[in-house]
Each structure stands twice: as C-alpha cells, then as structure tokens.
Amino acid sequence: MTRAIAKLPPPREDHRSPARSAHPAHALDGLRVIALFKFAKALLLIATGYGVHLLLNEDLLERLRLWTASLTDSFAQRMLLRALEWVEGLGATRIHVVMGVTLAYTVVVLAEGIGLWMRRTWAEWFTVTATASLIPFELWELIMRAPGRRLAVLVTVLLNLAVVGYLVWLLRHQPRVRASARRRAG
After folding, report:
1. Does 124 have pLDDT greater than 90?
2. If we measure between CA atoms, which residue out of 29, 21, 24, 12 comes closest to residue 178?
3. Which of 4, 64, 94, 110 is the most exposed place for a label (fewest CB within 10 A)?
4. What is the mean pLDDT of the chain?
5. pTM, 2 dp
6. CB 134 within 8 A of CB 161
7. Long-range CB pairs of 13-17, under 8 A, 24+ apart, other chains included
8. 3-state SS of the chain: helix, strand, coil percent to 5?
C-alpha cells in the first residue's frame, strides 16, 4: 500500500486561481491587509451614500440649519452654512447622480476587497489599475488644496502609492514564486 502512495503523481495546481499557490495562507498577509482597507473604505462609502440620501429630506436640512445657527464657533458655523447652501443648490437630480456614482464606486471597492481576500490574481491587477488611475487626481488635489488642508490628501496619496507599489512588486515576483513551488512539488 505504501508503494501505491509513493507512485501517485504530485497534486495538480488549481488553474482557476493561480495566485492561491503563490501566496502563503497566513491569517493576515499584505493582501488581506489591503482587503480590510478596501472593506473599511466600502463601509465609509455606504455611509456617505446614505448620508447623501438623507440630504433629500427637507426637514433634515432645516434641522441642520437650526443646529448650525446655535453653534458658538463662528468658523464651523460659516463652513456648515456654506455646505448646506451648496447642498441645497445641487437639487435632487444631482444628489441622485452623486448617490449613483458612490454606489458604483462602492461596488468596485468591494470587488477589489473580496478578490484580494480570496487571493485572486485578477483582483491584484484590478486594484493596481483602479488605484493607480486615481493617483493623478489625488496629486492634483494635493497641489490645488489650501496649504492647511493637505494632510488628509497626502495620507491618501501615500497609502495608495504603498498599495500600488506592494501589488506591483507582488505581481512581478509571483511567477518566480509559482515556478519555485512547482520545482519543489515536482
């Protein structure tokens, strides 16, 4: 019986998910960290979409206006009143467009997160493409934003550059890792 086991061919690789053999099955590796980041981003986008949806309620806008008038910080009061005026100027149609764009972007971010969590190579490529395509806009925002308000944009740019850099590095080294795993198995 032991001879029969020794003559069995090595297990075949799963061709549907080539990334699975290339990545260690650690509980929390780089791909899972990025996936968790994407899931957190999706939750924020869902909350944003819901908040934008609430802006269609005239009663809520009136309550926000009354609450803003009661603030003692004049800077915060001015900023909130300006934001409320901007929202009221948008109108229902534009608010629906913002909600639709937010929903579409949420779907993209969730697809990235789920694919990365499952260690799929397509998700790595998809995340690199989607994330890298936004970096020029973030850099433009970093340049155009008022000097005192650049920290959040800078952190976003740095995080996105780190994600893209890590995934590009991983994608470039995956073929070697897979070939090495095949040599060890065969």
Report:
1. yes
2. 21
3. 4
4. 83
5. 0.70
6. no
7. 13/178, 13/182, 17/118, 17/119, 17/120, 17/121
8. 80, 0, 20
The Cα–Cα gap between 121 and 16 comes to: 10
How is residue 148 annotated by DSSP? G
Backbone angles phi, psi at 55, to 5 degrees: -70, -10
Whole-angstrom distance, CA of residue 151 vs CA of residue 160: 14
Number of helices (H), then strands (E), belonging to the chain: the values are: 7, 0
Q: Looking at residues 135-149, what average pLDDT do you find? A: 88
Q: What is the pLDDT of residues 39-80, one digit of tens each?
A: 999 999 999 999 888 888 888 888 888 888 888 888 888 888
- Ranges of each domain in the chain: 29-119, 121-175
What are the CA-CA distances from residue 154 to residues 124, 132, 139, 168 (Å)?
23, 15, 8, 21
Q: How many CA atoms lie within 13 A of 65 on its CB side?
A: 13
